[in-house]
Amino acid sequence: MKDSQIVELYWNRDERAIRETSTRYGRYCYAIADNILHDPEDAEECVNDTWMRAWNAMPPQRPGRLRMFLAKITRNLSFDRFQARRAQKRGGGEMPLVLEELEECLPSRDDVEGEVQARELERAVSEFLRVLPERECSVFLRRYFFVEPVSQIGRRYGLKEGHVLVILSRTRQKLREFLRKEEYV
């Protein structure tokens, strides 16, 4: 079933929408959640919560790209669950590494002004990503949006881990410079 047909099922409040979404995007959303959480049960719960959030969001929202709409929901739910677990105990895995790597590029959000600027920062990062070469953008998104391990990214693009790390380092440097020019850092 096509995405537009699935979205139409949501808009018609047809429960088949969830079944069709799960069939088409279940493994995709699970992979996103598992990359962040590294816990099968938590990942599965986030995926199920994604279907509920999608159900509650449509209508009024009508996503143009259902795949990215679901990815963002899954990612946000997984980050929330990760933060909740982290509050209970310090954890390992990719999330602390990813957050540490990006920390050098992004301004602090500890104050009210930082919270207000968060939306503009999101817009600026999206603008930055649009001008990157395709592979560089894909590697960056795989690491920092989908939280994929460097080794997995390397296999996906036929690159050695060291090359992936160089791409990520250079892209973070470009992002840092871009954000300086935009007066975010």
Account of the 3D structure:
The structure is a single chain. The protein folds into two domains: 3-88, Rna Polymerase Sigma Factor, Chain: A; 95-181, Arc Repressor Mutant, subunit A (Orthogonal Bundle). 76% of the residues lie in helices and 0% in strands. It has helices at residues 3-11, 16-37, 40-57, 66-88, 94-103, 112-130, 134-144, 150-157, 161-181. The protein is globular and about 45 Å long. Belongs to the sigma-70 factor family. ECF subfamily. It comes from Neglectibacter timonensis. Keywords: DNA-binding, Sigma factor, Transcription, Transcription regulation. This is Sigma-70 family RNA polymerase sigma factor.
Question: What's the layout of helices and strands?
Answer:
Layout: H1 3-11, H2 16-37, H3 40-57, H4 66-88, H5 94-103, H6 112-130, H7 134-144, H8 150-157, H9 161-181
* Most strands sheet: none
What number is the mean pLDDT?
Answer: 87
Terminal Cα span: 45 Å
The CATH topology of the largest domain: Arc Repressor Mutant, subunit A
Uncertain runs? none
- Please give the count of helices: 9
Strand content: under 5%
Helix content: over 70%
Structurally, how many domains make up the residues?
2
- Which homologous superfamily in CATH is the superfamily of the largest domain? Winged helix-like DNA-binding domain superfamily/Winged helix DNA-binding domain
How many strands in all? Answer: 0
Rg, Å, rounded? 18 Å
CATH C-level category of the largest domain: Mainly Alpha
The CATH architecture of the largest domain would be Orthogonal Bundle
Instruction: Report the principal-axis shape.
Output: globular
Structural class: mainly alpha
> What's the order of the H and E elements?
HHHHHHHHH
Keywords: DNA-binding, Sigma factor, Transcription, Transcription regulation
Family: Belongs to the sigma-70 factor family. ECF subfamily.
Organism: Neglectibacter timonensis
Domain RNA polymerase sigma-70 region: 24-86, 129-177
